[in-house]
């Protein structure tokens, strides 16, 4: 939520603005927590696990060690799959928190506005379910050391990409921060992994692997972190505007109350005559 988002709301809805800020803070914390867990999982593969290999051992780039979506044949690497699974669950909750924060910014009323809000929440639920699907698969696979049966339902996780695009478009006028977060969260979808493997990770690895390019999962973790930072920075800007709005409202209330007290006293003949409210 940005400062412009708060200024568009009526000044009397301070409580609603505060609630929206709280949801945005929750979203930022969840996304940043998710990024940390994803980063720790990537370190287990590309630092600890790869560092333990000899020149004649199998490469850590082998798809058998892909913990983000385990599929047979697969070998577990420490607790990387568990970290990734829990982190993706946090990511799903972060999307829902963003949706609730944006929902409170909807100042318009009417059937059309209500329908758009319902569509937005439905799309957010689809994105959260998509991330939750990947998280559940990775977590169960890591705990059991074998790929879960969800590996055969991978198509179910593809809905997150178009849903995020639709959400970003619908939120573009309500919250620029939420739209930007959607853009960076695309990095956690299948399309984002393809871009990370072929375009971004090779910049750090120095080459494109025939299997899994090193640091691919790290790039995805960074994109999640940027989404969280985007929400956190927007919260700071919104909070400053919220404080300013509160002080303006308080000043207006004090002026009106002082004018009412003077008029009341004038009505009983105690105090100087007043022709109108004092000029501000």
From TrEMBL:
<feature type="transmembrane region" description="Helical">
    <location>
        <begin position="118"/>
        <end position="140"/>
    </location>
</feature>
<keyword id="KW-0472">Membrane</keyword>
<protein>
    <recommendedName>
        <fullName>CbtA family protein</fullName>
    </recommendedName>
</protein>
<feature type="transmembrane region" description="Helical">
    <location>
        <begin position="152"/>
        <end position="171"/>
    </location>
</feature>
<feature type="transmembrane region" description="Helical">
    <location>
        <begin position="219"/>
        <end position="238"/>
    </location>
</feature>
<feature type="transmembrane region" description="Helical">
    <location>
        <begin position="21"/>
        <end position="41"/>
    </location>
</feature>
<keyword id="KW-0812">Transmembrane</keyword>
<feature type="transmembrane region" description="Helical">
    <location>
        <begin position="83"/>
        <end position="106"/>
    </location>
</feature>
<feature type="transmembrane region" description="Helical">
    <location>
        <begin position="183"/>
        <end position="207"/>
    </location>
</feature>
<keyword id="KW-1133">Transmembrane helix</keyword>
């Amino acid at each position: 939520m940005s400062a412009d988002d708060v200024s568009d709301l009526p000044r009397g809805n301070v409580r609603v603005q505060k609630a929206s800020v709280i949801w945005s803070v929750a979203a930022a914390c969840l996304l940043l927590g998710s990024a940390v867990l994803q980063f720790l999982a990537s370190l287990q593969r590309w630092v600890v696990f790869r560092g333990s290999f000899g020149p004649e051992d199998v490469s850590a780039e082998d798809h058998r060690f892909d913990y983000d979506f385990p599929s047979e044949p697969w070998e577990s690497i420490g607790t990387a799959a568990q970290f990734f699974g829990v982190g993706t669950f946090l990511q799903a909750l972060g999307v829902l928190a963003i949706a609730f924060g944006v929902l409170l910014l909807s100042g318009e009323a009417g059937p059309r506005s209500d329908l758009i809000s319902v569509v937005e929440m439905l799309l957010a639920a689809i994105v959260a379910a998509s991330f939750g699907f990947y998280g559940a698969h990775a977590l169960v696979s890591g705990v059991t050391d074998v790929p879960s049966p969800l590996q055969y339902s991978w198509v179910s996780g593809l809905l997150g990409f178009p849903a995020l695009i639709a959400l970003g478009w619908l939120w573009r006028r309500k919250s620029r921060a939420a739209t930007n977060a959607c853009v960076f969260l695309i990095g956690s979808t299948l399309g984002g992994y393809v871009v990370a493997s072929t375009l971004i990770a090779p910049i750090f690895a120095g080459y494109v692997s025939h299997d899994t390019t090193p640091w691919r999962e790290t790039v995805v973790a960074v994109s999640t972190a940027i989404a969280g930072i985007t929400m956190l920075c927007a919260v700071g800007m919104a909070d400053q505007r919220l404080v300013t709005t509160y002080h303006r409202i308080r000043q207006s209330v004090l002026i009106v109350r002082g004018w009412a007290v003077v008029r009341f006293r004038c009505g009983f003949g105690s105090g100087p005559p007043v022709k109108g409210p004092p000029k501000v």
